[in-house]
Amino acid sequence: MLQPLGDSALLVRFGSHLDEAANSRAIAFAKAAQAKPIDGVVEIVPSLVSVLIRYDPIISRYQDIAGTVRLLLGRNQSSADGREWRLPIRFGGENGPDLDEVAGLLKMSPAAFISHHNATPLRVLATSFAPGFVYCGFHPEALVLPRRNSVRPLVKAGSVLFAAGQTAIAATDIPTGWHVIGHTAFSNFDPTAVPPTQLKAGDRLIFEAV
């Protein structure tokens, strides 16, 4: 579905809720659009189930951009994964104050939870919310847990977060309602670098306990 946003952007939506199919289609479409520049487009931003396209209205009109987008949507697009990364994580203790509670709620020991959490590589679903913040998924049903009932006013950059069948990584200091299960020294945000983030939607992450 195409949705105009003012006179200089449109949203391409692939689903009304987050699932594997909608997210994969959003990532594949964003890659295809970035690989073949569209006249007048100044930015392409994939999200969990949609892709934002910003354009210069002096150069192109909505009808022109929408027409090109519909042509792209009609083509088969590769959904191949991106790079593979290995991220060392320090679980529990002061690095992951919610680990024991999370494991208990899932009826596992902390060691069993860590083993299950790290058993399968996760795919980066999107980079959004805060600079360098990544959503990764999806965990199996046995590891699905809602967010906390309260929000922590601040967690440190590198915090590894867990909720809603996903693991997220904070690249800056942020407030969060997610469970904090660990910390990584890996940094996904450097404002002086081009681009400022390393992880991209479609990349695969292998978590390793240290």
Automatic annotation (TrEMBL):
Pfam families with a match to the protein in the record: CT_C_D (PF02682)
GO molecular-function terms, A-Z: ATP binding; hydrolase activity
Record Gene3D superfamilies: 3.30.1360.40, Cyclophilin-like (2.40.100.10)
InterPro entries linked to this entry: CT_C_D (IPR003833), Cyclophilin-like_dom_sf (IPR029000), PxpB (IPR010016)
Keywords associated with the record: ATP-binding, Hydrolase, Nucleotide-binding
Signal peptide: none
PANTHER family recorded: 5-OXOPROLINASE SUBUNIT B
Name of this chain's protein: Carboxyltransferase domain-containing protein
Source organism of the structure: Devosia soli
